[in-house]
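request received
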Amino acid sequence: MSATSDTRPDSWRKPAFIANPVLRYALYLGALVYIVFTLATLPIDWDRVSDGLSRAQRIFSGAFPPSFDRAGLLFDGFMESLKIAIIATVGGIILSVPLAFMAAGNIAPKPIYLLGRAIIIIARSFHPVIVAIIFVKAVGFGPFAGALTLVVYSVGFVAKLLAERIEEIDFGQVEAMRSAGAGFLTTQVYAVLPQVMPRLVGLGIYQLDSNLRASAVVGIVGAGGIGATLANAFGRYDYDFALAITMVIVGVILVSEAVSGVIRKRIT
Amino acid sequence: MNTLSQTQPLSEALSGRDDWSRFTPKQRLIRYAGFVSAAAVVAWALGSIDVIWAWVWDSPAQMADLFGRMIPPDPSNLPSILEAIWQTVNIATLATMIAVVVSLPVAYIAAQNTTPNRACLWLGRFILVSSRSVNTIIWALLFVAIFGPGIVAGIVAIMFRSIGFLGKLLGEAIEEIDRRPVEALEACGASRFKIVLYAIVPQVMPAFFAVSILRWDINLRESTVLGLVGAGGIGMILQGAIDTFNWPEVATVLLTILALVIFGEMVSSFLRRKIL
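response:
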C-alpha cells in the first residue's frame, strides 16, 4: 500500500465507454467509414437538394395562412377516419382474443402456439401502409381497405401483448377449474379471461387511439379517411388546405391521446 | 364460519347464498349502459360508413385471387431488390444517427431540471410535440415536395419524426436522474459543461442507448414505406411492382421486407444485450 501511494496519479480520467482500446478505435473507425462510404455512394442529386430551400419557401408561403374554407370536407374526412378506427378496433379485438390464447405458451399446445406466434409476427412486421396498398388493390379504394388494414395492425399489437399477459397469469385458478372437471372452454372463460380482462380493456382503448392516428396515414395510399383528403390536397398543391388538415390531425391526436390516457388510468 | 354460529341460523345463511351476484344492481345498470352505448357507437360507425357492401362480400374471393397470383414469388429481380434493401437500411441508420445528435440539445432544454429558462422549456416541448404528432409519411410528403423524390427526403423525414421520440424519452430520463451527483459537482465549483458531462451523462447513458436502438428498429420498419410516397428505399420497387401488377415480384419484396424486419429485431436485441 505504501509503495503504491507514491505512484498514485494526481489526475483522474473518465473510464472509457469500451474498455478494450483496439475494439473502441475499431468501432469508431468502422462508424466513420460507414458514414463516409454511404454518403458518398448514395444516389443523391445534390443540385435538386440545394434547390430545396427556394421550394420550401414557396410551399410555406403557399401554406400560410391555413385555409379552413373547405371545413366540411375536413369534417367528413375525420368522421370517416373515426368510423374506420372504431370498426377496426372492434374487429381487431374480436380476432385478437382467440389468437392471443393460441399464442400463449402456457395454454396452447406447441403446434398451435407456433402458428399463433407466426401470425402475430407477420401481422407486426409489415407497416400499415404496406398492408394498406395490398388491401386497396385487393378490395378497392375506400374505407373498407382502411378498416381491414387497421384490423391487421390491431391484431399484431393487441394479440401480442395479450398473449404475454396470459402467460403471466396465476395458474392456480386454471388448475382448480380443471380438477373440478371443467372443460377446456369453461376453463378459459372462468379462469383465464377474468385475469386478463383489465389488460384487454386497457389495450383496446390504447388501440382505438392508435388506430385513429394510423388511419390518418393509411388514407395516403387510398384507404379512405382524413389521409385521403390530405393526400388530395397535397397533390393539388393546395398547401394552405393541407396545413389546415395537418393542424387538425395534430390537435385531434393530442386530444385523443389525453382522453385515452385518462380513461386507462381510471380503469387500471 | 364465525358469522354462521353467531348471528344467524344456518338455513338463513344458506338461503342467502342463492342470490349471490358479483355486482350490485346499480353497477349492473352502469355496465349495461356501457355495453349499449358501445354497441350503439359501433352500429353508427358500421351503418354510416361509406362502403360498397357488394365489394365487402366479394373480398374473400378477391383476396384469395390476389394471393394466388403471388405464388410462386419471382426472384429474378432480387439483385435490385437487395440493393434497395441496403438503401433502406442506410436511410434508417443515417437518419437515426443524425436524429440522435439533434435530439440531445432538445432533450436538454425540454427536461424540467436542466432547462436554462421557461422559454427554452416551452420551445423544447413545442419541438417534441410537433415532431411526434406528425407521422413519418406526412413528413415524407412534405420533404418530397421540398427536396424532390429520393433518399434525402426520406432521411430528413425519418429524422424529423425521430427527434420527437428520442427527445421525449431522453428528456424523461434526464428528469428522473439522481440529483446528488449534480449537487456534489456544483459544490465543488464545476462548470455547467462539466456537470452535464460527469453527473448527468453517465446517468442517462443506459436510457440513451436503449432508446436509440429501439428507434433504429422502428425506423427500419418505417423506411420500408417511404418509397410509396417517393422518398427512396424498397418502397419504390414495391410501388413499381404493384403498379405493373407484377404480383410474383411483390411477393418477393414482401418476403424480403419480412426478413429485414426480423433481422433488425435480432440485431437490436443483440445490441441491447451487449450494451445494457
